[in-house]
Automatic annotation (TrEMBL):
Lineage: Bacteria, Pseudomonadati, Rhodothermota, Rhodothermia, Rhodothermales
One GO BP: protoporphyrinogen IX biosynthetic process
Gene3D superfamilies: Aspartate Aminotransferase, domain 1, Type I PLP-dependent aspartate aminotransferase-like (Major domain)
Keywords from the UniProt entry: Cytoplasm, Isomerase, Porphyrin biosynthesis, Pyridoxal phosphate
Listed cofactors: pyridoxal 5'-phosphate
Naturally occurring in which organism (per UniProt): Rhodothermus profundi
Subcellular localization, as worded in the UniProt entry: Cytoplasm
Molecular functions per Gene Ontology: glutamate-1-semialdehyde 2,1-aminomutase activity; pyridoxal phosphate binding; transaminase activity
Pathway: Porphyrin-containing compound metabolism; protoporphyrin-IX biosynthesis; 5-aminolevulinate from L-glutamyl-tRNA(Glu): step 2/2
Name of the protein this chain belongs to: Glutamate-1-semialdehyde 2,1-aminomutase
PROSITE patterns named among the record's database cross-references: AA_TRANSFER_CLASS_3
EC category name: isomerase
Pfam families per record: Aminotran_3
Keyword 4Fe-4S recorded: no
Reactions it catalyzes: (S)-4-amino-5-oxopentanoate = 5-aminolevulinate
């Protein structure tokens, strides 16, 4: 048995002073049970907990660690920035350089505003879309997660879905009524909603590849169909690329699928592990943002020098590593082939999805295309699998409804260890 005594002591102490012992719900292992390892350090593809257990990491800080943990360029950039003082609350050169790089790398972004989290980015993008169109309602998709702003906590994915409370108390009925829910990958449903709310819809927001109900790719034509509907009805199309940005392709899902949204939200990768988010898009819309325009949005620590230093180092590496996405794809394809072989060898029929460097093994034999089909997974068996993998030294996201991530620090050795651990873990999960 794995030794977790230090983590157990810390988790106990944490629960006295932090709700649930964590600062973000999924970390508490609520749906899989047990004690979350408290992490002490990480390097490359590995994380190490306070009891000295080492794991091959498939969480990657939930997305940012495209080059693996403690990347020397990113760490050095942060150290140098820290020595110049962590914050000024005044403009800095690095903010310009980061914004320039984002505009260069993401096809639809002409102007961008930097914020401190994905939540801030999506919340601000919706405010902007509402101001730009003069309309109130938005369409979101069941099982998609866009952070914890009130009007998104309606049939939300990620932790909200994991804990079975996709609708949070504290969200007023007045707020909830402006959020219309659509089924992902169901264009006809979106069309019906638009028809029933003619002239009232400001924005359609989605994860172009869903990641917060597990990894669910868009069906062919779905994104194009949304683009056409938005054009026809004067609706702002927002791609929430907080997860997919710089992960499913250099230019995100919009590059991979060739569909341009009006606004894009980003997070995770662009901070290199520090808290950063961004929203950007067509110049004409972005010019509505204060102080250029009337839509207020601000942040004392927005564009923070440490975050910008990390983000710039990260984005520079992304721009300057020509084979980055080929290398991620090579690992991803080998992992996928190995997972399929394992399933076949064990006679298991589970649904596996992967888009670039994000993937999910769904504990169902059905094709998962939306929230309804995702929810039919056997989460009890997933929990057994999760713990068996953890014991084997493989750190997966502690929920069926999260995508797992890998980096270019994951190589041949990690691949083999992961696949052989998985054979044993799956056998244990299905032992009865
Ligand atoms: N949008 C998406 C697609 C996300 O995956 C997340 C976080 N996982 C968010 C928004 C919210 O980002 P943050 O947690 O940084 O507020």
């Amino acid at each position: 048995m794995m030794q977790l005594s230090e983590s157990q002591a810390l988790f106990k102490a944490a629960q006295q002073v932090i709700p649930g012992g964590v600062n973000s719900p999924v970390r508490a292992f609520g749906s899989v049970g047990g004690t979350p390892p408290f992490i002490a350090r990480a390097q490359g593809a590995y994380v190490e907990d306070v009891d000295g257990n080492r794991y091959i990491d498939y969480v990657g800080s939930w997305g940012p660690m495209l080059f693996g943990h403690a990347d020397p360029d990113v760490v050095q950039a942060i150290q140098e920035a820290a020595s110049r003082s962590p914050s000024f609350g005044a403009p800095t050169e690095l903010e310009v350089r980061v914004a320039e790089l984002i505009c260069e790398l993401v096809p639809s972004i002409e102007m961008v505003r930097l914020v401190n989290s994905g939540t801030e980015a999506t919340m601000s993008a919706v405010r902007l879309a509402r101001a730009y169109t003069g309309r109130s309602k938005i369409i979101k998709f069941e099982g998609h997660y866009h952070g914890h702003a009130d009007f998104f906590l309606i049939a939300a994915g990620s932790g909200a879905l994991t804990f079975g409370q996709p609708n949070s108390p504290g969200v007023t009925p007045g707020t909830a009524q402006d959020t219309l829910l659509a089924r992902f990958n169901d264009l006809a449903h979106v069309e019906q909603l638009i028809a029933a709310n003619a002239g009232e819809i400001a924005a359609i927001i989605l994860e172009p590849v869903a990641g917060n109900m597990g990894c669910v790719p868009p069906e062919p034509g779905f994104l194009e169909g949304l683009r056409a509907l938005c054009d026809r009805h004067g609706i702002v199309l927002i791609f929430d690329e907080v997860m997919t940005g710089f992960r499913v392709a250099r230019g995100g899902a919009q590059e991979r699928y060739g569909v341009r949204p009006d606004l894009t939200t980003l997070g995770k990768v662009i901070g290199g592990g520090l808290p950063v988010g961004a929203y950007g898009g067509r110049r004409e819309i972005m010019e509505y943002v204060a102080p250029r325009g009337p839509v207020y949005q601000a942040g004392t620590l927005s564009g923070n020098p440490l975050a910008m230093a990390a983000g710039y180092a990260m984005l520079r590496k992304i721009a300057d590593t020509p084979d980055l996405y080929e290398r991620l794809e090579t690992f991803g394809a080998a992992l996928e082939a190995g997972v399929r072989e394992n399933l076949k060898g064990l006679g298991l029929d589970l649904y596996f999805t992967r888009v670039g460097a994000m993937a999910t093994l769904f504990f169902t034999s059905e094709r998962v295309v939306d929230y309804e089909t995702a929810r039919r997974c056997d989460t009890r068996r997933f929990a057994r699998y999760f713990h068996a993998m953890l014991e084997e030294g493989i750190y997966l996201p502690p929920s069926q409804f999260e995508a797992f991530f890998f980096s270019i620090a994951h190589g041949e050795r990690e691949l083999e260890q992961t696949l052989s651990a998985q054979r044993r873990a799956l056998a244990r999960a299905f032992a009865d």
